[in-house]
Amino acid sequence: MNNVPVEVTSDFICPWCYVAEHRLAEAAKQVAGTHEVSIKFLPFELNPTMRVEGMDRKAYRSGKFGSWERSLAMDAHLAEVGKAEGLAFNYDRVLVTPNTRRAHRLVGWAQERGDASRLVHQLFYAYFTEGRDIGSLAVLADVAADAGLPRREAETWLSSEGGVREVLELETKSLASGTHAVPRIRIGSFVAEGAVAVSRLVDAIKAVRSEDAPRATVGRGTGRQS
């Protein structure tokens, strides 16, 4: 079994990050049996100065993209992309654009315990499909429980300042390395910016052993649209 370390830099309000997470999971399934994919999730807040309680999504998106109508058109496009992937983007349920720092802290805590892949998926699902406010401490504790983690311990962690410094340091490191949009996936020498096809991810995973992975590629969609 060939162990392949993968780094994923993303944010939970980025729809293309959800698509990329889904495609990477599919790629990992396709190589199961010959390659074991070990994923490390790195934080990247698209809105690092967002107030803790978040912001009304309609007001936020209208301000960012110039009009609510343009935001709705972008949402409709992502909903179609999601449908093709088997993902439901229920934007009518999403009322708040959250501060995602707590969510990233939760993932860091989960990764100290082991694989955080299930939690990451549940966070995306909670936000984009269920329309839950993933900036809320109580919601995040519930999502942790949904992912099979101890709710009370997650709530205690989130109630503290644990992980704040680590998240900020990792984000500073990402910015210094040239990361300015997400998703970003590193597999060996292969670096994908955007939601690249499953086949490209499979090829990159298989190439790690021989170190023949392509240097870089840019896929469709980044966090600039979030």
UniProtKB/TrEMBL annotation:
Swiss-Prot/TrEMBL keywords: Isomerase
SUPFAM superfamilies named among the record's database cross-references: Thioredoxin-like
Pfam (any one): DSBA
InterPro entries found in the cross-reference section: DSBA-like_thioredoxin_dom, Thioredoxin-like_sf
Parts of the chain that traverse the membrane: none
Domain DSBA-like thioredoxin: 6-205
Domain of life, per lineage: Bacteria
GO MF annotation: an example: oxidoreductase activity
Keyword Membrane appears in the UniProt entry: no
Protein name listed in UniProt: 2-hydroxychromene-2-carboxylate isomerase/DsbA-like thioredoxin domain protein
